[in-house]
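Example 5.3 — Pyridoxamine 5'-phosphate oxidase family protein
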Amino acid sequence: MIIDGHPEIFPVNYAVNRGTIVFRTAEGTKLDGAAPGSPVAFEVDGFDPETNYAWSAAIKGTAERAESIEEILETVSLPIFPWQAGDKSRYVTIVPTETTGRRFRIQASARRRPSISEATRPE
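Solution (predicted structure tokens):
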């Protein structure tokens, strides 16, 4: 999203719906930055420890909002649950114009190092 003329990144909970990405948010900067027709980018990463493969997908597109009653009912029925309290009753749909991604094997030596959450902390 572009906020005050600069790109910004926001964490969101999302769902894929009919080839689009949908996320919930509250009123404010994130919603303002995702005004209908505005350019947006979305990235998601994942790791499968059973196969030792990671993947990354990036989507560029435009922001849209549900307008018809059918679109609104379909959007609010999606399984998107906010992690923080508060009224997150606004939904934004990203309509992709460009999708890229990759899948790659993680080197065994990279998995031996502790993650940030596993690292010991100084007391």
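Remark. The longest helix spans residues 69-76.
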